[in-house]
Amino acid sequence: MTEELTNNAVNSGEAGDVAAKKPLATSFDLQAEYEGSHIQETLDQLDQELVGLEPVKARIREIAALLLVSKARRELGLETEPPTLHMSFTGNPGTGKTTVGLRMADILHKLGYVRQGHMVSVTRDDLVGQYIGHTAPKTREIIKKAMGGVLFIDEAYYLYRPENERDYGQEAIEILLQVMENNRDDLVVVLAGYADKMEIFFRSNPGFRSRIAHHLEFPDYSQLELHDIAQLMMDNQAYKFSAEAQDVLREYISLRMTQPHFANARSIRNAIDRAKLRQASRLFDDRGGKPLDRETLMTIEASDIQASRIFIM
Amino acid sequence: MKITQGTFSFLPELTDDEIKAQCQYCIDKGWALNVDYTDDPHPRNTYWEMWNQPMFDTVDPAAVLLEVNECRKVYGNMYIKVNAFDAERGRETVALSFIVNRPKDEPGFGVSREDGQGRKIRYRIHSYATDKPEGRRYE
C-alpha cells in the first residue's frame, strides 16, 4: 500500500532524466579539479596542526585521491555507486581522533561527498534512552542533526552491553546499522575508541565491521612528538619556553609517559596549563619589582615546570 | 478534486528531489521545518496534527524527507504538508507551507445553503470527506 502512495514522479525517474540530459564529459583534468576543490589547504592544515600520525595522514591522502578519481569516473559516466566512507578510529585518548574527524568532515565536504560538512560528536548517552520507546526517537534526532555531515560516535563500544538485558543500546545499534546502509550518501559515520574494546565490539556486532570501509589506527605519540606538540601549543597561545625550560620539559615528558592515566596530547595540554599557572604565580609574587614586558609575560621558565610533583615522585 | 491549499498547490505534485530543494531553501533562510498531517481538508482548518517535533537543528533536507517518508508510511492516505517557520523578530510566523502528500481520492467540497431569518441565506462550505468519521475518511 505504501508503494502506491509515494509521489508519482519517483526520485530515480526524475533525477535519471535530468542526469541523462547533461552531456557526459570525455576527459577529466585531475589537477584542475584538485586545485579547484582547495583540498590541498585542508591537507596542509592537517599536516601543520597534527604532529606525527603518519599512517593516518597517508590514509587520508589516499581517501582524497580515491574521491577525486571517483568524481572523475562519475563525470565520464562510469560510476553510479557512491563509495562507502564509514570509518573507525582506534587509539588511546588524546591521540587526535576527534580533531581528525573534524578535518575529515571538512575534506569530504570540499570533495562534494558530504553536503553540509559539519560534524556531530556523540557518545552513548546521546543515543540510548532510559526507558522503552525512548531510544528510537533519540537516535533518530541525532541522525537527523548529523545528516549531510559526519556523525562521530566516541567510545562506541559502550552501545553494546550484553550483560544487562534491560539495556537499550542494541536498539540504537540496529537503527545505526540501517542508516549506515541505506543513507550512505546522506551521512558518514565514524566510530572511535580504544583498540582492544573496539575489537570486541566489532566481533559481537559483525554488521558494523562489514559496513566500515576504513579502519584507522592512531598510535601513541613518541617523546619527541609530544615535545613538538607542546611547542605547537605554546606557539598558538603566544607563549614560549626558555632554553632551560626546554630541557626540563623533555625530562618531564619522559617521566610523565611512564605514569598511569597518560592521555598523550591532553596530558601535555594540562601540563602546559599548570606551567602557565605557576608562571602567573611567580610573576604575581615578584610584582613589587620592575614592570612586566612582553618577554617576561611570554616566557615559561624552568622553575615553572620543575615545581611539578612528578619530579618528587 | 485536488485541493489548492498552500504554496505550489496549483503545480503538479512535487517530487522528492523538489521537496528537498524547497527544504534546502528554507534551511538556508534559517527557518524551522515541521511536518503536519490531517484528514479534514476544510480550508479554515488550521489545526493539523504535528508529526513528531519541529526540526530546529536540522541542517540537511534529507532529514526532513526522512520524516516525510516516515509519515507517509503511517498516514499515507491523508494530507501531509511541510511548514517552515520564520522566527525572526517582527515576523514570527509560518513563512512557507506546501502539501507533499494527498489521498488517492479527494472528494472535494459542496456548498450548502441555510435559510435564515428574513429570507437571509447563510452559505457553508462542506467537505464531503467529513461525512465519514475520523479514521475512515479515505478508505
What this model shows, in words?
The complex is a heterodimer of chains A (313) and B (139). Chain A folds into two domains: 17-218, Rossmann fold (3-Layer(aba) Sandwich), CATH 3.40.50; 223-311, Helicase, Ruva Protein, domain 3 (Orthogonal Bundle), CATH 1.10.8.60. Helix content of chain A is 57%, strand content 9%. Chain A has helices at residues 2-5, 11-21, 30-36, 39-49, 54-75, 97-110, 124-127, 135-146, 169-182, 195-204, 206-211, 223-236, 243-258, 264-285, 294-298, 302-306, and strands at 87-91, 119-122, 150-154, 188-193, 214-218, 240-241, 299-300. In chain A, the strands form two sheets. A five-stranded parallel sheet of chain A has the order 2-3-4-1-5, sandwiched between helices. Chain B is α+β, with helices and mostly antiparallel strands. Chain B has a domain at 16-104: Ribulose bisphosphate carboxylase, small subunit (Ribulose 1,5 Bisphosphate Carboxylase/Oxygenase), CATH 3.30.190. Helices cover 20% and strands 32% of the residues of chain B. In chain B, the strands form two sheets. A four-stranded antiparallel sheet of chain B has the order 2-1-3-4. Chain B has a two-stranded antiparallel ribbon with strand order 5-6. In chain B, a hairpin with a 5-residue loop joins β5 (109-115) and β6. In chain B, α1 (16-28) crosses α2. The radius of gyration of chain B is 17 Å and the shape is globular. The relative contact order of chain B is 0.21. The mean pLDDT of chain B is 92. Chain A binds chain B through residues 1-2, 4-11, 14-15, 115-116, 118, 137, 140-141, 143-145, 147-149, 183, 186, and chain B through 12-18, 52-53, 55, 57-60, 62-63, 66-67, 69, 72-73, 76-77, 101, 104.
